[in-house]
């Protein structure tokens, strides 16, 4: 991913929540794109994966590569959502499902611990191979399959069946979903709650305006 200027992380809780939530919906958007076309925007993809393989970043802005535009795909989805514009319903379904699964994960301490151990191992892989190497992507996909996928509530991915069965495609989709979980946890850590999306829409809109 080409370097971009580092912007200091926003200080307001709403802006940090907006960036984290943008990561969730960026993951949802890339899952949809992968399932339909087999391709994804490189910058959007690398931002999510790099933010996922480093479970203990030095700063908030390190999680998304230091520039809000690295999360532009997700920010655009959020802007449509808060502006009551027509957004892709499949992407919205994936995004809100990721938030639901994150809450289930938070309620399962054993799974949280297991996932933390897996991500620490994957971080070592990423340092050796590079964050988007297929070994790392395969490990992220496996981590998702062995943890989040065991919940009764699951995300059913719609797309081209022939594409979804190609080499590394299931792993890439699951890696994207894992990234969505990672950013959903970040959103919650920054004070994000689902009820705020309904009752504090104006605060989110102002935060998005500041990030645009």
From TrEMBL:
Signal is among the record's keywords: no
UniProt KW Membrane keyword: yes
Xref: Pfam families: DUF489
Record localization: Cytoplasm; Cell membrane
Membrane topology: Peripheral membrane protein
Keywords: Cell membrane, Cytoplasm, Membrane
UniProt-listed Gene3D superfamilies: HflD-like
NCBIfam families noted in UniProt: PRK00218.1-2
Annotated family: Belongs to the HflD family.
Record-given protein name: High frequency lysogenization protein HflD homolog
UniProt organism field: Vreelandella gomseomensis
């Amino acid at each position: 991913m080409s370097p971009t200027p580092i912007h200091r992380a926003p200080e307001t809780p709403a802006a940090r929540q907006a960036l984290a939530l943008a990561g969730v919906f960026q993951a949802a958007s890339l899952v949809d794109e992968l399932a339909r076309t087999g391709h994804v925007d490189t910058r959007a993809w690398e931002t999510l994966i790099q933010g996922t393989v480093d479970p203990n970043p030095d700063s908030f802005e390190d999680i998304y590569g230091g520039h809000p535009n690295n999360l532009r795909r997700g920010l655009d989805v959020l802007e449509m959502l808060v502006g009551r514009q027509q957004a892709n319903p499949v992407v919205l379904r994936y995004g809100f499902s990721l938030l639901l699964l994150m809450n289930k994960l938070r309620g399962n301490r054993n799974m949280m611990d297991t996932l933390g151990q897996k991500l620490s191992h994957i971080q070592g892989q990423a340092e050796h191979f590079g964050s988007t190497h297929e070994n790392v992507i395969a490990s992220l996909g496996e981590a998702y399959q062995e943890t989040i996928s065991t919940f009764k509530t699951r995300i059913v991915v719609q797309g081209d069946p022939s594409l979804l069965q190609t080499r590394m495609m299931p792993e890439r989709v699951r890696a994207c979903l894992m990234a969505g979980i990672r950013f959903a946890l970040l959103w919650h850590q920054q004070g994000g709650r689902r009820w705020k999306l309904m009752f504090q829409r104006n605060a989110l809109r102002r935060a998005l305006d500041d990030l645009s």
